[in-house]
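B., you asked whether I could sanity-check this one before it goes into the benchmark set. Here's the sequence:
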Amino acid sequence: MVPLIAEQLAAFERRIEAELRSDVAFIQAIGSDLVGAGGKRLRPSLAFLAGALLEAEAESTMRVALAVELLHSASLLHDDLIDDADTRRGTAAAFRRYGNVVSVMSGDYMLARVLGILAKTGSSAFTALMSDTAARICEGEVLQFQMATLETWDRPTYQVVIEGKTAVLVAAAVEGVAVVSDASDATREALRAYGMAFGRAFQLRDDFLDLLGDPATLGKPVGGDLREGKVTLPVLGLIEDGNAEALAIVRRHAGDPGDVERLIELVRQHGGDRRTQSAIAGEVEAATAALASLPPCPAREALMALPRAELDRVA
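And here's what the prediction gave me:
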């Protein structure tokens, strides 16, 4: 992903494969699938860049990267089941292939591995950070379900949701390295602010693409969030303005033919696309500004470049 940390990422792939090794065939299979699928490895990349920035000890940085990515992977297994998803990274979701019980317990197995890594760090502060992060991930997912169930759609709650779903784990990747390195409070806060803003930008871009992206580039139909009853920022303006047609589409989860296409038209007509892009740009600016107080170096420049890429990300 970033040439500066190519060696660390290669070592990470070997280490996470070892962490997910099991004598139980189904757990091993799910672990192997996750390692093979790879994904963006955004969070480990952030941890390694933070490690380079702070000149942190290599093994401590690796443990942060592993703990954060395993927590992320566990949440994906659980989320796919909750969302009744068909695919994950182009292949059938784990619960579709192995069943609900195996998928959930494999996620729990990953959480157990996280606990082992936390114990090895010997850092109560990092353990506390990861505990709070895991709790906020759960709160974000439940709150999103609550919003859909009670039809209480508003921006402040949406902000809490995207922070819980995405931002807190992105922040943990960089703040965690500061914690295990005994960096100053100012450095820790700067990295946390960066991670939270970057995480919000990342989720906003995901939400934008889910409705307004190119299906061919995404590799899936648009409107997935709508069909799951989720209201994201491109649509929120319509709901807050009391647009009856948009509200009806949302309430029936875009279940009628042409619903998704019509809602896209309404979003574009009322500026929901521009508002969302503006919000992403604001978070990108906040993320890069948060690092201004830290010493300039190639790692800092790479950290700044990653959120900027969200402005044009297409998948």
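One thing to flag: The radius of gyration is 20 Å. Otherwise nothing jumped out at me.
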